[in-house]
Structure formats: structure tokens, C-alpha cells
Amino acid sequence: MTQPIVIKGMAWDHPRGYEPLRATSAAFSKMHPEVDLQWDIRSLKEFGDMPIEDLIETYDLITIDHPYMGQAFANKLLLPLEKSISEKNLGTLKEQSVGPSFESYMYKGHQFALPVDAAALVAAFRNDLLLQLNLKLPKTRTGLFDFYKKIPNTHKVAWPLCATDLWCTFLTLCAQDAGRDFIKDRAIEKRLGTQILDELKQHLEHLHQESIHWNPIQILDRMGADDEIIYAPFLFGYTNYSRSGYTKNSVDFGNSPINPKTDVSTILGGVGLAISTHCKHQDLAVAYINYVASAEIQEGIYTENGGQPGNLKAWQSKANNTLCNNFFSNTLTTMEKAYVRPQHRGWNAFQEQGADLLHKGLLNNTPSDEIIKNLNQLYQSIS
User: Fold this and answer.
1) What is the pTM for the complete model shown?
2) What is the pLDDT of residues 38-48, one digit of tens each?
């Protein structure tokens, strides 16, 4: 009996991360019986921080965050997909991308991943409780402070502000106030950064006390389990929580508060599916990721199995919006206007260390201008 061709992949540890990949792998293997697709998982933090170099020799398929593109290019870690997928097919996937998702995996003319999962910071809320309390959600950041005053003591607002998510929120607010190009010459303008940190300190006075330690999943789990947290204005959305029966209470999602003076919503997240340069069966690996990224699979199998697709047709699907309580239609504006992080080599090291620096600064109530000074010094020190 012929031994199967094993293709190993690394997913991330949430049903949204691994369930749709397992489902699409099973469907792909029915068409290609000679292929055995196997998935391991890593934590959400490892997904954002673990260097690709630690994975490419063991895994053929890697779920990846878009800021890794510069590192991947410099160290020749990932397969440039334009060499294996037709220009026409890539053009179609680009047209069908949710917001800037497709382009976020492009670097110096090379496409290093296909967007199979799309996300940005959005607002999560318990609509049933807001209706009971006759509360309307704020559309702008300044309106948040008025909203806090209207909430009874029995309820709370929470933001995920553990180091990784604090970093994403900080960059979001900078981009909302100063536009997408607020980072210049590897520095964040001191006055801008100081103002944003001062604002975050003001918000912390009104938030659930555990916000500074929580990630999005922890907050969404709490919103789904009990009635204490009624609103989270900035967190990465998960369609799972808007699906009937996933948690005790259904969580609704919408666009985050903005600064109406700029055309920027929030920071782009999501997941790309990439192929290691060490992959021995690149043709089959390419066939699989092309299959997963296609509109038909994204709209069907991928979403049906807990996925949060990267294809616009899946976001516009009436069936998918019914399945997910209009998660897609209610957050699409945020996706279309999302801010894309830098991709240059060294950004990931800066991102990981910078997030910890900001977090420790807030925990210790370090003066905001001192935090920004230290942050910029760190940025300049990383090549």
C-alpha cells in the first residue's frame, strides 16, 4: 500500500483557528486521497510573537500574521505564491479580499500568503442588555466618556488591554488621530503618542479592573457567560460568539468608535495561509491554500465550521450573516477602512518588546512622555 503524502500545518488555538482548517483538509483529501493534511496548534500569543524560523523546517503550511512579511522576504522563509498561482487567480482573490487583507500579505512585489481569515478591532456588546437599559452605543471616541456615565453600577465596560492587545489599541488610536502614516523614520511622534497614552489612562479609570490583563477571548467568554460586561469598544471580533448556542448569551458585534476627522477605523488583524520554503510537496500545498481561499469554500465549508473568512463573498452572504447574527454586515465598514501595520524586517521584534514596554508603563503609571521616549529608543535600536 502506498504511503500517504503527509503535509503538516500549524494553526492557532481557538475553534475559529483550527476547526475550519480541519474541515477543509478533510474535504481536500477526498479529492486528493493520496494527501494526509495534519494540523498542530499554537497559542494566540505564539501566533503573534513566535518567529517563523521556529516553524518552517517542521511545518509545510503556516498560519501567519501579516507584519511578518518583511522578515519572511529577508530570510527567504516563505514561498512566493505568484510563482505558483496564476496572475488571474491572484487578481480574483485580491478583488474578493475583505478590506486590505490580501494586500497585507504582499511585500516587495511578492505574495507570501492568502487571506483565509479576516479581522480587525470591532465593538462587542450585549444588545439585549443595552435595550433593557435604553443605552445607545457611542459612534466616536469622545462619546465613550459620556457612555461610561450612563452605565449603572451593576454593569461594566471592558477592553482587552493585555500587552498584545494594548499594543493594537494604541496603534489604532494613533492611526485614528494622525492617519495611516503616523510612523515615520522608525518613530512615533512624541506628542501624538503621549496624548494617546494619556487618553488610555483616562479610559482605564472607567473600565473593568481586569481589563489591563485580559485578551479578547477572555472578555468574550465573560460576556457570553454572565451579564456584567455589556460593552467592549475595541477588540478583535470572533463570529463564534455571535452564533446561536456557542455561549449562554449571544454577543453582538458592530463598528468601533472612530475619530470622525480621519478615514481610519481600527487595526487590521486576520490570518494568512503561507507555505514554507522547506515544503517538499509545494504543488499540493499550493493547491490546498488556493482551495481554502476560494470564494466557494470560504462562503461554505470554512464559515460553516466556525471560521471567520477572508473572502468578501463570504462576508456578503445572507446565509452567513443569518448564521452569525449579522456579524459580517455590521463590521464590514471597519474592515474596509482598517489600518495596516508596518511589515519591514525588525517590526515583529519591536512589536513584541514594545507591547511589553507599554504594558509595564501603564501598570506602573509611568509618565506618558517617558514611555514614548523609551518606545522610540527601542524602535531605533532594532534593525
Assistant:
1) 0.95
2) 999 887 676 65
